[in-house]
Amino acid sequence: MLQELSQMDRITQLQDEIQQLLTIMWSTIAYLTSRANFRQVSPDVPVTKQRKADKIDPPEVFEANKKELVQDLVVKSKQVEYLIKSLPEPEAEEVQAMRLQALEEEMLEANHEYIRAVNRAKTLHKQISEVVRTMLDEPDLLDDPHS
After folding, report:
1. Which neighbouring-strand residues pair with 109?
2. Please, are residues 33 and 78 in contact by the beta-carbon 8 Å criterion?
3. Among 31, 42, 78, 94, which one is most buried in terms of CB atoms within 10 A?
4. pLDDT digits (tens, 9 = 90+) for 84-122
5. Alpha helices by DSSP H, 36-92
6. Which residues are within 8 A (CB) of 11 and not within 5 positions of it... i.e. 6 or more apart?
7. Cα–Cα distance between 73 and 67 in angstroms, integer?
8. pLDDT tens for each residue of 43-92
9. Contact 62, 39 (CB under 8 A)
10. pTM of the model
């Protein structure tokens, strides 16, 4: 059970790291598309639009930010890769099937125990109700015998 929790912790941590990686990717794309100026990359495709100077970063700032964003992506990718490698190998299908069969048998037994406990509680409730009803129906029992 503890090992399964540890595996689930790793899966949850992996999920969180992948979410962070996607956030970094989104932020990188948003930065690169919003803070760069348009540049002609092909003589066949002219640049038809320019950004205002206050909307673009100077080339040295833009390059420094690109390097930082790439570094963030690489670091987060390595963390995700490490977590993936730390996950256990998947069980063979036969082993999984046997484990699921054992869990189903345990669940059936637990359900039977639950039904027995509920029936026992109903029986006890019925007995207690009968005793209380008997006590309330017989006024002699309620009277003080010393009076």
Report:
1. none
2. no
3. 31
4. 988 888 888 999 899 999 999 999 999 999 999 999 999
5. 59-86
6. 87
7. 10
8. 888 888 888 888 888 889 999 999 999 999 999 999 999 999 888 888 88
9. no
10. 0.56
